Amino acid sequence: MSQILILDGGMGRELKRIGAPFQQPEWSALALLEGPHFVEQAHDAFVNAGARVITTNSYAVVPFHIGQQRFEQHGERLAALAGELARRSADKASHAVTVAGSLPPALGSYRPDLFNEADSLAIHRVLIAGLAPYVDVWLAETQSSLAEVRAVRQALGEQDKPLWLSFTLQDEDTDAVARLRSGETVSEAVAEAIRLGAAAVLFNCSQPEVMEAALDAANAVLQQQGGQLQLGVYANAFPPTPKDAKANATLDEIRADLTPQNYLGWAERWVGKGAGIVGGCCGITPEHITALSNSLS
Q1: What one-character DSSP code corresponds to residue 95?
Q2: Are 97 and 47 in contact, with CB atoms under 8 Å apart?
Q3: Which helix (H) or strand (E) element contains residue 65?
Q4: Which one of 28, 100, 115, 297 has the lowest number of neighbouring Cβ atoms within 10 Å?
């Protein structure tokens, strides 16, 4: 087995688990506002578990979570703080750690219907300005549509750091074709990622059960077009998220069956399908990452 790059796990739930300030609607951004040391503690836990990539805690630094006024006043500062905390954790690690700058869906997770290009560009440019001094790669994650990733690429402008695009998938009522939450196909998404010059395509914040079909679709496009993209997966530990779910409406339960060992079983299947980057999203803990690191790297 070739070397697998191990990502971290879910920041929001880890913050909640270790007692950080945590509530909705601010979600993981509340710790930046009221207890930044908890963010560094969570990063350290994932690094100590074996993560080679940690993701900045900037996912919820958007008006959807912290409100428009607070974002306008403090958005860039909070993004910079998220970058600084991740960089600090990476720099003191005993092994090399890459910092990925999280660029979320600017207008709400799982809601491609809420997308507005002008608003998305404005929000992401604030995050990019704050994060840029601290990150090694850009990670546009939990992207639900092609329009969302095109806006990210546009917002980055002349930024020359590698861009990883990570898509969230339909969890239920799917046909034989792997699809984004917009209904667009994974095949279309991978082709667009190649066109946009991405360095990697990942699939995240969906059930483990839907990831293999996405990897199959991605591999087919890469074989057809000759792309050199890395592939990756970091699933969540939620039950299926229905199409009519309202982002930030409730705190989802965590599946009891996705123990570290069982999650490793899924990860081994993804590696068998060509995933070279593996980690976890919401509900995936440092213990899960330890299992991945011990067995895959």
Answers
A1: S
A2: yes
A3: helix 63-66
A4: 297
Q: Which residues contact 33 (CB under 8 A, 6 or more apart)?
A: 21, 26, 66, 78
Structure tokens belonging to residue 187 = 């095949």
Cα(268)–Cα(55) distance, integer angstroms: 22
Sort 205 into a burial class: Cβ within 10 Å, 0-12 / 13-18 / 19+.
Answer: buried
Residue 141 and residue 66 in contact, taking contact as beta carbons nearer than 8 Å? no
Q: Which of 242, 252, 246 is nearest to 172 (CA)?
A: 242
DSSP 8-state symbol, 3: P
- Give dist(CA 231, CA 164) in Å, integer: 9
Query: Which one-letter DSSP state was computed for residue 55?
Result: E
Cβ atoms within 10 Å, residue 261: 11
Burial of 256 (0-12, 13-18, 19+ CB in 10 A): exposed
The answer, as to whether pTM is greater than 0.70, is yes
DSSP-assigned beta bridge partners for residue 167: 143, 203
The token pair at 269 is: 């299947």
Residue-by-residue pLDDT tens, the chain, 297 positions: 468 999 999 999 999 999 999 999 999 999 999 999 999 999 999 999 999 999 999 999 999 999 999 999 999 999 999 999 999 999 999 999 999 999 999 999 999 999 999 999 999 999 999 999 999 999 999 999 999 999 999 999 999 999 999 999 999 766 789 999 999 999 999 999 999 999 999 999 999 999 999 999 999 999 999 878 999 999 999 887 655 555 555 567 899 999 999 999 999 999 999 999 999 999 999 999 999 999 998
Provide the pairing of β-strand 98-103 with 230-235. unpaired
Letter for the amino acid at 98? T
Radius of gyration of the CA atoms of the chain, in A: 17
